[in-house]
Design brief:
The complex is a heterodimer of chains A (838) and B (348).
Chain A lengths: L20 H11 L11 E4 L23 H11 L1 E2 L11 H16 L17 E2 L6 H12 L4 H10 L3 E3 L10 H22 L2 H5 L1 H33 L3 H16 L8 H19 L11 H4 L1 H9 L4 H16 L20 E4 L12 H13 L6 E6 L5 H13 L6 E4 H15 L14 E3 L3 E3 L4 E2 L5 E4 L1 H9 L34 H33 L3 H5 L4 H4 L10 E9 L1 H17 L5 H9 L6 H9 L9 H18 L10 E5 L5 H4 L32 H11 L25 E4 L7 H17 L3 E6 L2 H9 L8 E3 L4 E3 L5 H12 L4
Parallel strand pairs in A: 1-2, 1-3, 5-6, 6-7, 10-12, 11-12, 12-13, 14-15
Antiparallel strand pairs in A: 4-11, 7-15, 8-9, 16-17
Helix pairs in contact in A: 1-13, 3-8, 4-18, 5-18, 6-8, 8-9, 9-10, 10-13, 13-14, 15-27, 17-18, 18-24, 21-24, 26-27, 28-29
Chain B lengths: L16 E11 L7 E6 L20 E4 L9 H5 L5 E4 L2 E4 L9 H5 L5 E4 L1 E4 H9 L2 H7 L2 E6 L6 H13 L3 E6 L6 H6 L5 E5 L5 H8 L4 H15 L6 E8 L7 H14 L4 E8 L5 H6 L14 H12 L8 E4 L11 H11 L1
Parallel strand pairs in B: 2-8, 8-9, 9-10, 10-11, 11-12, 12-13
Antiparallel strand pairs in B: 1-2, 1-7, 3-6, 4-5
The chains are: A alpha/beta (838), B alpha/beta (348).
């Protein structure tokens, strides 16, 4: 047996390289954080009415850390807001028109404009909190819907406090139709809107469709006017510039901005400029910085401009320089709440770019721009945004695989997430089948899918799938099956100090202690699962229906196919594809808990159900032997153990089938299943009671589709095989969802595997790692995050954070600075690397 | 430095049951590509430095893993022989009375009491290793039978390898070569790659370090080389030499092995790997209540390995086949100079 590992020091901590003085300055300046003179923090704007509100708290309902702050944020933005003079007839307009005018007025005439030294792209400040533009009556009924006794906030809070998870109508999380906006320019978009408006009947023009199209036309002129204002600024700065070269650059930028984004770009520089403005204004429109507003297949739709400019003599390095400026711009999203710390509230903004992947007829779409962008990432790393996602498939070219593994070997882990096409496309085809939208997702276009946010797969330019809106702890159903529909422990409110009496919340599925057979418990679990899914759907409906009425986003609607055609805002189901995603959290903890109950109570009779419940109520205290048995003797998911994985499949089939049975009432969006977990698996570990898998309260739950921590004792291939199996595995060619591959989670499922750097220590081992990734494409899940971390280094970083300011780790689909996360999460990352303990 | 335990080679009566002590997946060190290595329990040698002491005995063995123990005392209560005692250091196994009946391991809630050695049916084992077929295919990998000495369970090994070949899996056997010549017939025809150990060229030193002489080992190796020359299986042959301080890590030994390879195996060896001494197995000895003469032995310094690799390259073999792997001592900080000199003297 030779498990010997050649002693080799960790690769030195990754630092950026090959940066020009221009980019080095911009990057360094960015990392000065709150010390910067310039920043992009939220600026608040008001209609000046006494009832005015800016903050749309619903978009934060999926961020439990902010619950205690919601009222404060609402109040402070209101207090900080500056008044905007309104046109006389403002209050006679429809809400979408008011909103469109107000956002445009603020962006074009009130928000300060700056160009940072050396920057090659215009468009700096965009983080806004604009008035909701509601009349007094509207604001009143919105507030009732939101803050009433049974309002959205109270129901959302109950849902979270009692360990079910969270749900809320959230911004972003889609890929806008950037390719079209570049190709047609806003002139084209505006002309199309105007044409559609003219064709409406008079009744329709006077009704909501007319109002929506008018609002979208107003929004469609915002980029032109903002670009014109930036063009003027560039000319002024050019005249003031002493450096000849810089003067030239600023003059060229001024010329670009006279042309794009209103007209289609002529060069790569113009295309990137247009893309940035088009993207940035979505974040202004939604009043939320980049939560999953993703770019899609950037190496495909920017390629014609790249090739044209290279042909016309653009230096390839200069092309990369333009992209690097784009990179810096993307990171300024974090300025929104910069005074809360370097990352604001969260590192999870996720403006995703997608690289490589399959094209029509099974062709691979890797091109020169793919490599140029990978070089940019390589040069700029570590940096948080935009988050790259490389699509791999069975026939990904060797050169791409080499570059990918080189980059992984060279940093603490992959500076990108790997998406696997066959499995992902199978999920999109499953969704087309289940939801009856084969018109929009077909074998001949499914390759154009792209992930948003962290890893959530959607179609591009016509799809809003609410990919992070509902997050449900499946484990709650196990708890309710044990108790017959009541919380195991009473909820104690740490804010008020009050303890709520336990009530009958779920269906009465009977006294589990009286169950004689495992099948009875499974039946109870199934019934409780149906209940918690229904509960989640109902909770979500509160904010979904309120957003549909009170929070239109007409600018974004211009960039989503279907909205103009239907004359309907994207928040009201205007997109061609309207899903909302139920993300299951605690999958492995749930499966392992069921396996433990079956093993301990029924199969091996190590304890009675009553004893097990007493142990859980006592948080295992006094039941250490039973806890050890649950942890160590009961079977676990993630070991490629067919029996345990069969239970995992059963759990998966149950909850996904139930999820497909629901639609939102107000907007008629179809629910679809996914597994993301974001950071909930950490935080909710403190909310949820102890679980039968041996986990005490306060220990983290399992993350997305990953096995429970420490359970994957058979190594990465077994871990990956288990994941592939529960997604549906494979079948004979042509008999599965896509070719030979099944996938029951169209949204995708977050999967992280942490390796010791020894696996990539020399070229021979790097080849083996490449082969592992190819094997993963066959057997694994929809996407994989690779961490390459030496536990010793992490422990050192914990002790001496000052030495590791740029150490990035992936948590669940998002990168974050190791030194910026809490001690518990740090320990979790270390545990997960060293595979010690449980 | 004499072998303390050495079960005689004894083939399994039933050809459908093997005793294994581990199955390692995503193995990257036991042949080409990504492999699953199946470790057979029982060895015909008992090398003083062995880093898998649990591989030597062919019988199942009991050990206690301190880090897993929750101190519940279950093991003591269920032991029918009263062979388990709690001491200040933890659970002490009275090996004179323990019959390895497995009652304690079955009841131990934390898996701290564990039986090393599991019986596997052929079908189950084939099913188990085929789980990673996709990774074998993508990497040019396959299955390696190692140990212990897989040749001691020759009829099972033979059936196992045949089943793998039927499934079109690349097979490797990692062997010490210490068994009768007819054992070769059992596995060579179904083996794509043989990983063969030559530990020490001097027969007496070999006997001192491993408990056995090396005549049969070298004979068997000559047979393998001859078969390869005649075009029979295996297709590929790698030689491995453990480089052990105060034992095999001498220039004379490395040069001698090289000369032997050059003289007897010309052209058939694709790779000769010098494997550096590894001390990660201290815990294993402790858990088996065995002393280990290498307990406080530091790793070899880098330059010793490089020097010996150089000797190997100049020994008469094709220099391109020489590789070395394994851990070396951390480069000394300037203040450690004194210690560095003293260890250099012992390894010279």
């Amino acid at each position: 047996m030779s498990t010997a590992v050649q002693h080799q020091a960790m690769p030195p901590l990754r630092t950026p390289r090959q940066l020009s003085p221009r980019i080095q300055w911009l990057r360094d300046y960015y990392f000065q954080g709150a010390d910067r003179k310039w920043n992009n923090q939220f600026l608040a704007w008001s209609t000046g009415t006494p009832w005015d509100v800016q903050f749309n708290e619903m978009t934060f309902y999926i961020v439990p850390e902010t619950y205690a702050l919601l009222q404060t944020l609402r109040g402070s933005f209101r207090q900080a807001a500056r008044d905007i003079a309104l046109p006389d007839d403002f209050w006679t307009w429809s809400l979408p028109e008011r909103r469109a005018w107000f956002v445009k007025e603020v962006m074009v005439h009130h928000v300060p404009r700056e160009i940072l030294p050396g920057d090659l792209l215009a468009g700096a400040r965009f983080n806004l909190q604009t008035s909701l533009c509601l009349t007094e009556a509207e604001q009143k009924s919105f507030d009732t819907a939101l803050l009433g006794r049974n309002g959205a906030r109270a129901r959302m809070k109950w849902f979270h406090d009692h360990g079910y998870g969270n749900a809320g109508a959230t911004s972003g999380h889609l890929v806008p139709d950037h390719a079209m906006a570049l190709k047609n320019g806003w002139r084209g978009i505006h002309a199309d809107l105007s044409d559609r408006y003219d064709k409406l009947s008079q009744t329709d023009q006077e009704g909501p469709r007319g109002a929506q199209l008018r609002a979208m036309m107003t929004a469609a002129t915002m980029p032109r006017e903002l670009a014109a204002a930036y063009s003027t600024l560039c000319r002024r700065l050019a005249n003031e510039a002493s450096d000849q070269e810089r003067r030239q650059e600023l003059r060229r930028m001024a010329t670009h901005l006279e042309h794009v984004p209103w007209e289609p770009p002529r060069t790569f520089w113009e295309a990137v400029q247009a893309l940035w403005l088009n993207h940035m204004l979505i974040m202004s429109d939604e009043n939320y910085p980049g939560p999953g507003v993703s770019f899609g297949r950037i190496d495909q739709y920017l390629l014609p401009y790249w090739e044209t400019s290279l042909k016309e003599g653009m230096d390839r390095e200069f092309g990369k320089e333009i992209l690097k400026c784009f990179w810096v711009h993307c990171n300024t999203v974090y300025d929104a709440m910069i005074r809360n710390g370097r990352q604001g509230i969260t590192a999870g903004f996720g403006q995703l770019i997608t690289l490589s992947g399959l094209g029509p007829d099974g062709r691979d779409m890797t091109n020169d721009l793919t490599y140029a962008i990978l070089e940019v990432i390589d040069d700029m790393s570590p940096i948080l945004e935009p988050k790259p996602n490389v699509r791999l498939h069975r026939n990904s070219p060797t050169a791409l695989m080499d570059k990918v593994v080189d980059m992984i070997s060279d940093s603490q882990g992959a500076p990108f997430l790997l998406n696997f096409d066959e499995r992902s496309m199978a999920g999109m085809m499953r969704e087309a089948e289940r939801a009856g939208c084969r018109e929009w997702i077909r074998p001949d276009n499914v390759h154009d899918y792209a992930p948003v946010g962290c890893l959530e797969n959607t179609m591009v330019g016509n799809d809003r799938s609410g990919t992070v809106d509902c997050n449900l702890n499946l484990l709650k159903a196990v708890e309710l099956a044990l108790t017959g529909g009541r919380d195991l422990l009473p909820f104690h409110d740490p804010m008020t100090g009050k303890t709520e009496p336990v009530t009958q919340a779920g269906p009465s599925t009977g006294d589990a202690a009286a169950f004689a057979r495992w099948e009875q418990f499974w039946l109870a679990y199934s019934e409780q699962t149906a209940y918690i899914i229904r509960k989640c759907v109902d909770t979500y409906e509160c904010s979904e229906s309120a957003r549909a009425v009170y929070f239109p986003t007409p600018y974004l609607s211009c960039l989503v196919r279907g909205c103009a055609e239907k004359g309907r805002d994207v928040t009201r189901g205007g997109a061609e594809l309207n899903f909302t995603t139920l993300e299951a959290v605690t999958f492995a903890t749930t499966v392992d808990s069921l396996l433990a109950i079956k093993y301990l109570v029924f199969d091996c009779q190590k304890c009675s159900m009553a004893e097990l419940m007493a142990a859980l109520r006592a948080n295992w205290s006094g039941f250490e032997v039973l806890q050890a048995m649950a942890r160590n003797k009961a079977p676990k998911y993630g070991r490629d153990d067919d029996e345990a994985d069969a239970m995992a499949r059963q759990v998966m089939d149950l909850w996904t089938d139930l999820t497909w049975q629901h639609r939102t009432t107000s907007t008629h969006r179809q629910f679809r299943p996914g597994m993301l977990s974001w950071n909930y698996w950490a935080g909710d570990g403190f909310v949820m009671a102890a679980s039968a898998d041996g986990r005490p309260r306060g220990q983290f739950l399992s993350n997305a589709i990953c096995p429970s921590n420490g359970a994957d004792i058979k190594g990465p291939t077994a871990n990956a095989n288990s994941v592939g199996k529960v997604l549906g595995g494979r079948a004979a060619e042509g008999t599965a969802d896509w070719d030979d591959t099944f996938n029951c989670l169209p949204n995708g499922a977050s999967h992280t595997i942490t390796f010791h750097p020894a696996i990539i220590r020399d070229p021979a081992h790097q080849n083996k790692f490449k082969a592992f990734l190819k094997g993963y494409a066959e057997n694994g899940g929809t996407c994989l995050q690779v961490n390459m971390l030496d536990p010793d280094m992490l422990r050192d970083a914990q002790q001496h954070p000052e030495n590791y300011p740029h150490l990035l780790v992936r948590i669940t689909g998002y990168n974050t600075y190791f030194t910026a996360i809490g001690k518990e999460l740090q320990n979790e990352v270390i545990e997960r690397v060293s595979h010690q303990g449980y | 430095m004499h072998a303390t335990e050495n079960d005689l080679p004894a083939d399994d009566a039933k050809d459908s049951l093997a005793t294994l002590f581990e199955i390692q997946r995503l193995s990257t060190e036991d042949g080409p590509g990504i492999r699953t290595t199946v470790f057979f329990k029982g060895c015909s040698l008992a090398c003083a430095w062995c880093h898998n002491p649990e591989s030597i005995s062919a019988r199942p063995q009991l050990h206690w893993i301190a880090s897993r123990c929750i101190g519940c005392g279950t093991c003591g209560t269920v032991c029918p022989e009263d062979a388990l005692k709690r001491t200040a250091e933890g659970v002490a196994i009275d090996r004179a009375h323990c019959t390895t009946c497995g009652a304690c391991a079955a009841e131990c809630p934390s898996t701290a009491m564990e039986i090393i050695g599991t019986h596997w049916h052929l079908d189950a084992l084939v099913h188990e290793v085929l789980k990673d077929q996709a990774y074998f295919a993508s990497s040019g990998g396959g299955v390696t039978a190692g140990g212990g000495e897989p040749g001691l369970q020759a009829s099972f090994l033979s059936a196992f390898l045949q089943a793998l070949k039927q499934a079109n899996i690349h097979t490797a056997v990692d062997t010490c070569g210490c068994y009768p010549a007819q054992t070769l017939d059992a596995f060579l025809p179904f083996t794509d790659l043989v990983l063969y150990d030559i530990k020490e060229i001097d027969p007496e030193r070999h006997r001192t370090f491993t408990g056995r002489g090396n005549a049969q080992i070298l004979d068997n190796l000559r047979t393998i080389g001859a078969r390869m020359v005649s075009g029979a299986a295996p297709q590929e042959l790698w030689i491995r030499t453990p480089v052990i301080p105060q034992a095999t890590a001498t220039e004379a030994n490395i040069a001698g092995i090289g000369q032997w390879i050059a003289a007897h195996l010309k052209g058939t060896v694709a790779r000769w790997e010098l494997c550096a001494f590894n001390n990660l197995c201290r815990d294993k000895y402790l858990r088996l209540d065995r002393d280990w003469s290498y307990n406080s032995q530091p790793l070899l310094p880098l330059d010793t390995l490089e020097q010996l690799a150089d000797v190997a390259r100049r020994s008469g073999v094709d220099p391109a086949i020489v590789h070395w792997s394994g851990p070396t001592r951390k480069p000394p900080a300037p203040s450690d100079e004194k210690q560095e000199r003293s260890t250099a003297a012992t390894t010279a």
